[in-house]
């Protein structure tokens, strides 16, 4: 017996998208994988471990959601390969936990019949039983067990009391799995039509539904999914979001700026003048501080985004804009990858794996970098703060309007480029949409705060991991061999001088040319590099926005903003494009087209602004 | 009639699937469309009623015309 207990039972979480697999995975293993209320959040398998109440160790595999056993898209194939034992370097699971949203038992029950064909011991876990009861669905669990011939457990994955049943069951079952005494279900055959008929007979015997006049979700959807009112609501939400970013962030930003100032004063009083003091004060504090000061804006932005994701609204947004996406030939499934790209293009590009048609997947990958990622915000915030007066237009903040506009410009160009790609390089693929719109849910407060915390920490960690080393490097290059006669005589000035002639026609100065090079590591490094360059030139410790509003012209600033809408920067993005498309062709193409657009946009903006005498 | 031409708020019963695209039929079946089920079109996109969302056994499913055209229905 002892040796059995030392062995770990391996279980896999299988089931339709958005039925709560990752929520259960996080709850059991203490994991922090991203959860949201829309299909297609999980696109990779992940492993976690936990211990059952009686001490048995369990290794749990969280899999992307999949309806059947065909594997239409890359993420679905990962799930099916995992269950079949075809994943490289991964042992086949000992048993399957088949999760199902209890409210959808009638539509999805045939999926569990299909899963019986895998020939592994299997348990059906009906999740969100509380929501099903709310919608008037009554499930006779023991009757269902008898008709299906497999164990059935009711569950509410996000609550400890809701998981108790499942843990009790796993306590027994994991032992049976390791002894090889767990029963393996009879295969059901693979003709879908017959499985559906059988499933309908089973639900007829074990599920009763009290038809309700109208559920809560249906009542809301009448307004939210209205073709015109719904779009107005969506735009209003986005609009309010950017207004809030500007109107609510002030006090917190002032505090951070004050703290940075104190730190710099402390450093000056402790250290004597010399290279060390300059490196810490002008390099690290000025550089890292110039980006960290925008943390409040990032938090407010994600406070909105995470709320919309958890509530189930984002899938509605996907429905509302699909009418436009269909017009430009984009796949309906492209919405979620593009939405993810507002945090960072990297998870967004990976999320494109849910798109079945390869050409649609590549098109989506190519336009994902046009979504306004979190790394662009410090650039936007800096320039908007320095050049756009904090005035109100009516009741609206003018700065919020400009930020909103920049995001919209990115989206519009993404749609235009998608249209062009689909008409030229990516012809032929038929674009499709077939998704389930989830019921609205109250976000789990703990998960919500944790998600927000994680987003904030990602921003802060980047400051330590990328911006600090970059700031030190820029400090060195902009200080030596001598900075006495200005930036042009330093290493940084010489390097920047090479590309400056290319950028001069679009209104960029030497400082900008220098800052764009390290910004290849991460877009916000453009801000920290400018902070360090100007801190070295300037003896008084002014805020960066004050310095550039005094030394840049408005056309230059606007051209810089236009450049960053496209910003062919961020090596990690090109690296992930290479990985996801297996070659150099698409990352080079993406860089090329983004560079051309960025250059043209900056140039047109610069010369137009000058022509208008700005 | 196919689901793509079903007027709003008109309950209909699924009769079968258009032959010719077995991959699409599989995907429609997998997500839950089956003969005998009742469907009702609830919402439409702004341009050309595309996409549409339909109620099917308590679930709300969004699909484009190209998918809806493969589901044969009869209004009740």
Give a summary of the structure in a few sentences.
Chain A is α/β, with parallel strands linked by helices.
Layout of strands and helices, then pairs:
The complex is a heterodimer of chains A (614) and B (76).
Chain A: H1 2-6, E1 9-15, H2 21-29, E2 46-51, E3 57-62, H3 74-84, E4 95-101, H4 105-116, E5 122-127, H5 129-134, E6 137-139, H6 141-148, E7 152-154, H7 160-179, H8 192-206, E8 207-209, H9 216-224, H10 229-248, H11 250-270, H12 275-292, H13 295-311, H14 313-327, H15 335-340, H16 345-351, H17 358-367, H18 377-387, E9 392-393, E10 396-397, H19 398-423, E11 434-437, H20 445-479, H21 491-503, H22 510-516, H23 525-537, H24 544-551, H25 554-566, H26 571-581, H27 585-611
Parallel strand pairs in A: 1-3, 1-4, 4-5, 5-7
Antiparallel strand pairs in A: 2-3, 6-8, 9-10
Chain B: E1 12-17, H1 22-31, E2 38-44, E3 52-56, E4 59-63, H2 65-68, E5 71-75
Antiparallel strand pairs in B: 1-2, 1-5, 2-3, 3-4
